[in-house]
Amino acid sequence: MTIRVLLVDDQPLLRTGFRMILEAEQDLAVVGEAGDGLQALDQVRALQPDVVLMDIRMPRMDGVEATRQITGPERDGPAKVLVLTTFDLDEYVVEALKAGASGFLLKDAPAHELVQAIRVVAAGEAMLAPSITRRLLDKYAGHLPSGEEPVPDTLNTLTEREVEVLKLVARGLSNAEIAADLFVSETTVKTHVGHVLTKLGLRDRVQAAVYAYESGLVRPGAQ
Questions:
Q1: Whole-angstrom Cα distance, residue 87 to residue 108?
Q2: 24 or 221: whose pLDDT is higher?
Q3: Mean pLDDT rounded to a whole number for the chain
Q4: What was the pLDDT predicted at 93?
Q5: 41-78: string of b/e by CB count within 10 Å (b at 16+)?
Q6: Closest C-alpha to 25, from 122, 129, 107, 108
Q7: pLDDT higher than 70, residue 101
Q8: What is the 3-state secondary structure (H, E, C) of the chain?
Q9: Is 166 in contact with 63 (CB distance < 8 Å)?
Q10: Do residues 155 and 215 touch, judged by C-beta distance below 8 A?
């Protein structure tokens, strides 16, 4: 199955570079481009892409609001959003993840990482790079709870092991790393993650990580 990709970035040169990389892959097809969020919304409705490669800082409508509308309850199609950010980690990335993005990728990431990220997101998984996630959340520690606030009642629906798994997800660990840490199988970890998402009403492990920090369950910088 061919994965249909929409490129959204206000820099034409970057879009051209991304297009060259993606069109070299047999299972990827660039179906359109947009230079801002408003154009992106029109293109999503017209072209029905599977994945939207979304820049954050753009004129007229930024990537956060565009992501919110593309992935919101009144969405017109199944498009997933993969956010592009700079090396310094854009201050709006957390908001984009909360708005419904399925993950984020650095603009200077190697070509194979870009291709793999699109495939992962298209498959319905979250692109949550551990090292970037930890750095991102630590960077914005001042905007998140200190850990001294009361834990939300919704966390009481989780078992002790599910809470452990949620904490490790928030630290950016992969399923394999969590399995090794807890001495269980990857299949067991996937089951626990699934239960966490269902009980907390979250879409994917990206939202789970943000939830863990915002609820105060995990403190930025904690190991």
A1: 7
A2: 24
A3: 82
A4: 72
A5: bebbeebebbbbbbbbebeeebbbbbbbbbbeeeeeee
A6: 122
A7: yes
A8: CCEEEEEECCCHHHHHHHHHHHCCCCCEEEEEEECCHHHHHHHHHHHCCCEEEECCCCCCCCHHHHHHHHHCCCCCCCCEEEEEECCCCCCCHHHHHHHCCCEEEECCCCHHHHHHHHHHHHCCCCECCHHHHHHHHHHCHHHCCCCCCCCCHHHHHCCHHHHHHHHHHHCCCCHHHHHHHHCCCHHHHHHHHHHHHHHHCCCCHHHHHHHHHHCCCCCCCCC
A9: no
A10: yes
- For a pLDDT cut of 70, what percent of the chain falls above it? 81
Place of tokens 């998984």: 125
User: What percentage of the chain carries pLDDT values higher than 90?
Assistant: 41
pLDDT of 71 > 90? The answer is no
Q: Which domains does the chain have, with CATH numbers?
A: 3-138 (3.40.50.2300), 153-215 (1.10.10.10)
Provide the pLDDT for residue 145: 47
